[in-house]
Amino acid sequence: MFANFYFPYLIEWDSENLYRYFIWLLHDLAWMGSIAYLGLKDKVSWRQSVLGQLFCIPIICINAFRAMDMGFNSFNFSIAPYQFIYPVFETAIVALCWMPIFVYLKNKFFVKPQTA
After folding, report:
1. What pLDDT digit, counting tens, does each position of 50-81 carry?
2. CA–CA separation, 97 vs 8, rounded Å?
3. Helix, strand or coil for residue 51?
4. How big is the chain by its Cα radius of gyration, in Å?
5. What is the pLDDT of residue 81?
6. With CB atoms 3.0 to 4.6 Å apart as the test, which of 76, 78, 99, 100 could cross-link to 66 if both were Cys?
7. Contact by Cβ (8 Å): 78, 69
8. Which residues have a Cβ under 8 Å from the Cβ of 99 and sit 6 or more positions away?
């Protein structure tokens, strides 16, 4: 969300399409650190914290690969993996973040109360 505010300025500043991938890599590292902190402080479940970090690792790797590909050789080997891997894992992270709400709603509306 923070990136939406400065994205036009980043695109204007980074005309060579190189540094934006490192900045997005730093965003993902910051997100991994914050979700790890929240997992350690029991603000989110440990399973959700670990899965969120595992889902973020391919995104970090593809951002680094894309930056190296754009910066050093410009062969654009990374276009196809970037267009596939990035959206899949970003969608998985968003679904993982919304999962507690879905579980709550499922338990509230679809689980029958047990009588004693």
Report:
1. 999 999 999 998 888 887 777 677 667 777 88
2. 27
3. helix
4. 18
5. 83
6. 78
7. yes
8. 48
